[in-house]
Design a protein that fits this description.
Shape: elongated
Distance between the termini: 20 Å
CATH class: Mainly Beta
Strand order of the largest sheet: 1-2-3-6-7-8-9-10
Strand content: over 45%
Helix content: under 10%
Structural class: mainly beta
Radius of gyration: 24 Å
Largest sheet: 8 strands, antiparallel, barrel
CATH topology: Porin
Order of helices and strands: HEEEEEEEEEE
């Protein structure tokens, strides 16, 4: 019973703290989570179709409306354009044979991530919400992507363990990212969100020593780009702000 009482008190206290009115610019740490959708451009469009992403990170907004932070985005998609990648592993009927001599399914999808730091600025558009407005930000970090290959039960010999590394086209390199959007920090701690347009441009290269299907080392310098939208939810941590508590 004591534990239930303590949890109830903490819940009420949290709800009370959520009812905060901010009428002045403040230093505000923020945690955020988001969803994104992108179209690949340049060399990336030759390998993958449209993708999606989930992301999380930290952002710090200063009283002068500068933004500093870091975030991690996991990218995924199911359209692969790398023609003939596994053709030599198939039978004449286009099937894969596992270690037991049985037919096996093989799936492929895009897997990757962007990890980096961010610098930005917030432009308020309403006097009663000085910590909300248009945000402009730039980021720098690492973009990595590959073709994730999986066989049913991991039973296709040429696609088990490190062998599949020879087909996954692991690629990475320095990336720059820009974002233009809107951020809203409301009076209620649960009504804080952001959304906008995102563009990523990366200078990458294949990191495998040999592509097994072509029997060649890929040394091509690539330009991999993504253009899309991102929407997310933010959890601000208000400090030193006058609060009203409701029980």
């Amino acid at each position: 019973m004591r534990l239930i009482g303590l949890l109830s008190f903490l819940l009420l206290l949290n709800v009370g703290q959520a009812q905060i009115k901010i009428s002045e610019k403040e230093n505000i740490p923020l945690f955020h989570a988001s969803l994104g959708g992108h179209l690949p451009l340049n060399n990336l469009a030759e390998r993958f179709g449209p993708n999606a992403s989930v992301a999380g990170g930290f952002l710090y907004k200063t009283k002068s409306n500068f933004l500093f932070g870091a975030d991690f985005q996991y990218l995924f998609g199911n359209e692969i354009y790398e023609e003939g990648l596994l053709d030599h592993l198939q039978t004449s009927a286009g099937a894969y044979i596992n270690m037991n001599g049985e037919y096996s399914d093989v799936i492929m999808y895009e897997s990757g991530y962007f990890a980096g730091i961010r610098l930005g600025y917030l432009i308020p558009v309403r006097k009663d919400f000085p910590n909300s407005g248009i945000i402009l930000s730039i980021g720098a970090g690492l973009l990595e992507h590959k073709i994730w290959i999986s066989s049913q039960g991991n039973m296709v010999p040429a696609l088990v363990g490190d062998y599949r590394n020879g087909y996954d086209r692991l690629t990475n390199g320095f990336a720059a990212q820009g974002f233009v959007g809107y951020m809203h920090l409301g009076k209620n701690q649960f009504a804080n969100f952001f959304g906008g347009i995102e563009y990523t441009r990366a200078w990458t290269q294949n990191r495998r020593s040999l592509n097994y299907d072509t029997r060649e080392t890929d040394t091509q310098k690539r330009i991999d780009s993504l253009f899309g939208v991102r929407i997310g939810w933010m959890i601000p941590i208000y400090r030193g702000v006058s609060s009203s508590y409701y029980y």
